[in-house]
Amino acid sequence: MKRIIIIILSIILFTPVLEAQRKSCRKFHLYAECNANPGPRFKYDGQSRSNIIGVGDQLIYNLVFYSSREYNLSFCTSEYFEPIHIQLIDAETEDVLYDNSEDEFRQVITMNVDFTQRIKILVEIKAESMTEEEKMEFLGCLGMMIQYKKS
Length: 151
Fold this sequence. Notes:
The chain is of the alpha+beta class and 151 residues long. 23% of the residues lie in helices and 42% in strands. It has helices at 2-25, 28-31, 132-137; strands at residues 43-44, 49-54, 58-65, 69-77, 84-90, 96-99, 108-113, 117-125, 139-150. A hairpin with a 5-residue loop joins strand 5 (84-90) and strand 6 (96-99). The termini are far apart.
């Protein structure tokens, strides 16, 4: 009985903290380092988003990239979460189109799209500078800003 009361109290006390964290992450991509201006004529893409994430967690975004456009994808998170592992995968063939682990874990990707295609973006938080204990306790925000222009 005592254990059930402790679990219920934990849920009641922890839920507002998670909700506050979720609200603070909601528009993280709009005000964090992701929102760098890649140049003139780039427009905001509505597929941009932010999420709450923990170390070792992996998010998968399924997006559509339209033909004849140049895209700028910027990812940002807390400095403790770096590096961020990002893969772009063709949703039809499952071929890896880009892997930032082969490119010094770059967080800004520029690409031209010749034909409309669905691409999965896998993002994983590595957080190599954190201790194992910190990795278990820390949640943070991940932002993905997508901007495009006609190519």
